[in-house]
Amino acid sequence: MSGFDDPGIYYSDSFGGDAAADEGQVRKSQLQKRFKEFLRQYRVGTDRTGLTFKYRDELKRHYNLSQYWVEVEMEDLASFDEDLADYLYKQPAEHLQLLEEAAKEVADEVTRPRPAGEEALQDIQVMLRSDANAANIRSLK
């Protein structure tokens, strides 16, 4: 019966954090940084006609017109970074939020300084567009 009266001491580290959760947060931060790089640096055109920053200019134009959205073509994202497009294609609910946060950050950068009374930054909606062939759900096997 020795030790019967000793209930023992149990310890739970509630502030230490979870290494897997920290790793997931770092991964999301890296993906958001890559989305931001895409929106800021993706260019279209030729050297002869001149290169334009497609999404950065579109975000600035729409934001100044109080239209808080941008349409992103999946093919552009795939040509910039195929892995990034694959993440967005396979898990859109998780990664679209990161793309919208990146769009908001880019809009903040390109519209600074904003007029007095409009300092608060609006959320940006990202709409995805793809030229891929649509498939009927009933035809999938």
Automatic annotation (TrEMBL):
Q: Which reaction does it catalyse?
A: ATP + H2O = ADP + phosphate + H(+)
At the top of the EC hierarchy, this enzyme's class is hydrolase
| Entry's EC annotation | 3.6.4.12
One cellular component (GO) term of this entry: nucleus
Localization (cell): Nucleus
Biological process (GO) annotations held by this record are: DNA replication
Tell me yes or no: is Cell cycle among this UniProt entry's keywords: yes
Keyword annotations for this protein?
A: ATP-binding, Cell cycle, DNA replication, DNA-binding, Helicase, Hydrolase, Nucleotide-binding, Nucleus
Q: Where is the MCM N-terminal domain?
A: 32-129
Write out the GO MF terms: ATP binding; DNA binding; DNA helicase activity; hydrolase activity
Q: Which family does it belong to?
A: Belongs to the MCM family.
Q: What is this protein called?
A: DNA helicase
